[in-house]
Write a structure and sequence with these properties.
Strand order of the largest sheet: 2-1-4-3-5
Radius of gyration: 21 Å
Helix content: under 10%
Structural class: mainly beta
Length: 123
């Protein structure tokens, strides 16, 4: 399998040249081990050694690359408000637990709810 020379742009608009394995898509964004998101602009074959590998991708945008991974399903809680004698139903999104995986990527546990405030249950 041939290696590929790539030219890309980080989300901070910095141009970067690197060599990786084939299969990265031009126009898509990938996140490397340093948690830098790079949009692939150009690629061409090379015999040189790999200089960069990626953890995540492809993403359509930089914002998609930097967003936490969502694990599980999101849900909302309905609450009732009485305003001027009128009952109004509202839907409130709950805060979810967020942890960092072994690659330093934030994972948002969508099927959980954070309990308590800044000090957790000791609040």
């Amino acid at each position: 399998m041939a290696n590929i020379s790539y030219t890309g742009t980080t989300c901070d608009e910095e141009e970067i040249i690197f060599i990786s394995n084939e299969g990265l898509l031009t126009g898509k964004t990938y996140q490397d081990f340093d948690l830098v998101c790079i949009t692939i602009d150009f690629s061409g074959a090379t015999e040189d050694d790999i200089t960069k590998t990626f953890l995540y991708g492809p993403f359509d945008t930089c914002s998609g690359c930097t967003a936490p991974i969502e694990a599980g399903f999101d849900y909302t809680t309905c609450s009732q408000c009485i305003v001027s004698g009128e009952t109004i139903m509202t839907s409130v999104s709950q805060p979810h637990a967020i942890y960092t995986n072994e690659f330093g990527k934030a994972v948002e546990q969508m099927n959980s709810v954070v309990l308590g405030g800044i000090n957790g249950l000791n609040n």
